[in-house]
Design a protein that fits this description.
Layout lengths: L2 H8 L3 H9 L6 E2 L6 E2 L2 H15 L4 H12 L5 H36 L14 H4 L3 H9 L1
Helix pairs in contact: 1-2, 5-7
């Protein structure tokens, strides 16, 4: 398959395939006739793997590490297990941080509902943001 055919088959952008090729995750063959890149079945399978791994939260560097082991004939499964645990911990931490941000935003909305709009003056651009008492919002979150 050529880039466009591969992109269409997988429902992704051609630039995504070009990017994976540029960073050497995919290694297409070149046509002797016209120089076009050609992605044989092995490369199509690699793309399928890349997309599945990305969907699970693996980074490009993770995938490079997995391919490095696999390309040497070694099982990458132990590495995959370690990496997914790491990605899960990172995701859980981001989830906690996002929940805190959501709570701050909700408290700001509740507080701002009780305040009037004001024109900018002196060094104040928007009093809603500049008058936010972060300690008050954080205390509400703890309750």
């Amino acid at each position: 398959m050529q880039v466009k055919q591969l992109a269409d088959a997988f429902g992704i952008n051609k630039d995504t395939i070009r990017y994976y090729t540029r960073i050497n995750l995919l290694r297409p063959s070149r046509s002797n006739e016209n120089g076009y890149r050609f992605y044989p079945l092995e490369q199509q399978n690699r793309l399928r793997f890349i997309l599945s791994a990305r969907d699970l939260g693996f980074s490009i560097e993770d995938i490079k590490q997995i391919f490095s082991e696999s390309d040497k004939g070694k099982t990458p499964c132990p590495t995959v297990r370690v990496l997914i645990e790491k990605r899960l911990a990172e995701t859980e931490q981001r989830f906690i941080e996002m929940a805190k941000l959501r709570d701050k935003m909700r408290n700001a909305v509740d507080t701002w509902d009780q305040k009037p709009d004001k024109e900018p003056c002196d060094n104040v651009i928007c009093h809603l943001i500049e008058d936010v008492d972060l300690s008050n919002i954080e205390n509400k979150q703890a309750q």
